[in-house]
Amino acid sequence: MMSFFVNTGNMETLKTDSIESEYSAASIEVLDDLDAVRKRPGMYIGNVGIRGLHHLLWEIVDNSIDEYLAGYCKSIKVVLHKDGSATVEDDGRGIPTEMHPSGKPAIEVVMTKLHAGGKFNRKVYKVSGGLHGVGLSVVNALSEELEVWVKRGGKIFYQKYSRGKPVTELKILGETNERGTKIRFKPDSEIFETVELRYDIISLRLKELAYINKGLRIVLEDERVGKIEEYKFDDGILGLINAMNKNKTVINEPIYILGSKNDVEVEIVLQFADSEVENVLAFVNSINTVEGGTHVVGFKTGLTRAINEYGRKNLKKFEPLTGLDIKEGLTAVLNLKVPEPQFEGQTKSKLTNSDVKTVVESITYSSILEWLERHPKESEVLIERFIMNKKAREAAKRARELVKRKNELISTLPGKLADCSSKNPEEKELFIVEGESAGGSAKQARDRRFQAILPIRGKIINVEKAGMIKMLKNDEIKAIISAIGAGIGKDFDIKRVRYKKIILMTDADIDGAHIRTLLLTFFYRYMRPIIEAGYLYIAQPPLYRVTKNKKTYYVYSESELANLLEKLGDAEVQRYKGLGEMNPEQLWETTMNPQNRMLIQVTIEDAKKADELFSILMGEDVESRRNFIIAYSKEVKNLDV
Ligand code: 0RA
User: Quick one: 136 and 171 in the same domain?
Assistant: First the structure.
């Protein structure tokens, strides 16, 4: 490793003066590399929306995590600055600064050559197949500005770049006996649709990373709002499962599995709770595999096989159980290291290596069987539960068939629904509106030909916790199900939907975001095909109304407001605290009129994130949860124009 470095004596040839000289040594090749990245950013970071933007940050953080995995880094700090830039600082080995055979310092090669990082071969477990591990040069190419400080070999080094090109040489700023890397980058607004880094997305991911990399300290500071949080979990994924199940009645102590085979490392923790919901999180080389894959299938198969084997051996008249009987109330976290992972799927987060299924299945099978044999009391309780689940499921199926037949006959619409006159689902829109007063304004504002309004009361039930039966007793949920008219859960039939646009319209504040997150969780768990078909949207009401010289401007974000005020000078600014503060005309103009409004289409990933947010944070106090829950799909696309 690193044998191509000449000895560190060469460092003395570096200039130590602080004059920023135009750096002319950039070769044609370097320009080629980074031009290619700037020309086709999507090839390297997936897209230039919210996801791609955050990819820049993850690329750097991944490098710091690699230092932790190599045993060098104990602490990582991420700072979001007011000017839109972000800093990642770690106490790892520091990016090599020694001279490279090309005549440039290694760090400059890493920062300007595609895939140069890979040549250092630091990674034991690659993150290939996905969009991860594209290299620091990609971050550099897509940043308006990037500065790097390295503490290494007794010195502090510094270099600055812009859009991938050096604007200073590598300089020595001083001496130190510490080691580490600090990178500040400002995403390029010429490249990205939006450059606003999102606290909610970043804190959730950093928290995940802290859980799956036990003992690693991660600090997140948001200077834009003056907020700082620290994550450090010495119990790793065991701590995560405890947090996920904190408010549930658990049935057994968490079962911890650790094993490896064919260079695949498997760490799993699972627990059953008195709940109807299943919650399995799975990470492969630190990547959250939201789309699941062979590892998750292997886990479930191994678990089911072990339970059936135990039942067959130890119980009289035991009838084999299926995955469906076992998954109710199952919480699990899988944390895997795989040498050559292959990812597929819409977000490149589905693991497809078939050998991984075999490995996870056999490790799970033998560990669970052993645990069951050692814990006969708990095993008996669990198996009784599974058998009950099986019976209840069969009974529910018969009941559903009855209800279905009945439903087809009556299927009454909820009383609160103000339906539209059109009968054509293609053009029909259903607005699900928070609060009676906003609902009233929306009813007056709408175009009744094709827009229907369903007002719902503030606190809808948390389906994550409640389960099917309790949920179906909730009036708000019942109203939504019957308005949409296509059933629910396994009986959901997308062909029967009465509206092909279902629009969630909530206040632009924390409570509104909370309700929106609850609704997203509901759709994700019980009407997923609606999201998959692209029928679910979030309305985007303005945050401010600005008036100047009798002209009115509606403003949808803080940054837009700052820009506008800069342009207008002093103007009258009215902040909308809720939808209820708008009169029907304003509501129509800003939020409902297809000509002007902004609608955000909800993706499966958004909904999955909302769902995950609930499960990870379930255990925490209400206040911190409230602070945490912000909009889940701000990626602004004006879909109507
Ligand atoms: C290349 C090689 C080595 C470390 C790094 C890059 C490195 C990159 C980043 C990015 C953020 N923090 C980082 N820390 C390290 C290996 C260094 C060695 O062998 O001494």
Answer: yes
Q: Supply the residue whose CA is at minimum distance from atom 4 of ligand 1.
A: 95
Place of tokens 């007794």: 154
Query: Is the residue at 299 inside a domain?
Result: yes
> Cα–Cα distance between 641 and 632 in angstroms, integer?
22
Mean pLDDT is highest, among 95-109, 392-406, 448-462, for 95-109
Are 222 and 275 part of one and the same domain? Answer: no
Phi-psi region of 546 (alpha: psi -120 to 50; beta: other; left: phi over 0): beta
Of 113-117, 131-135, 362-366, 508-512, the poorest mean pLDDT is in: 131-135
Q: Confidence band (pLDDT; 50, 70, 90) for 569?
A: confident
State the residue for tokens 């700082």. 228
Domain ends where: 231, 257, 284? 231
- Taking the CA of residue 106 as reference, the ligand 1 atom at the shortest distance is 1
Residue 621 in any domain: the answer is: yes
**Number of domains the chain contains:** 3
Q: For a ligand 1 pocket test, name from 122, 143, 209 the mutation site with the most ligand atoms within 8 angstroms of its C-beta.
A: 122
Task: Decide: 179 and 92 in contact? Cβ < 8 Å.
Answer: yes
Give yes or no for a contact between 218 and 230, defined as CB atoms under 8 angstroms apart: yes
- Cβ < 6 Å from ligand 1: which residues? 2, 60, 63-64, 67, 90, 92-93, 95-96, 110, 117, 120, 122, 181, 183
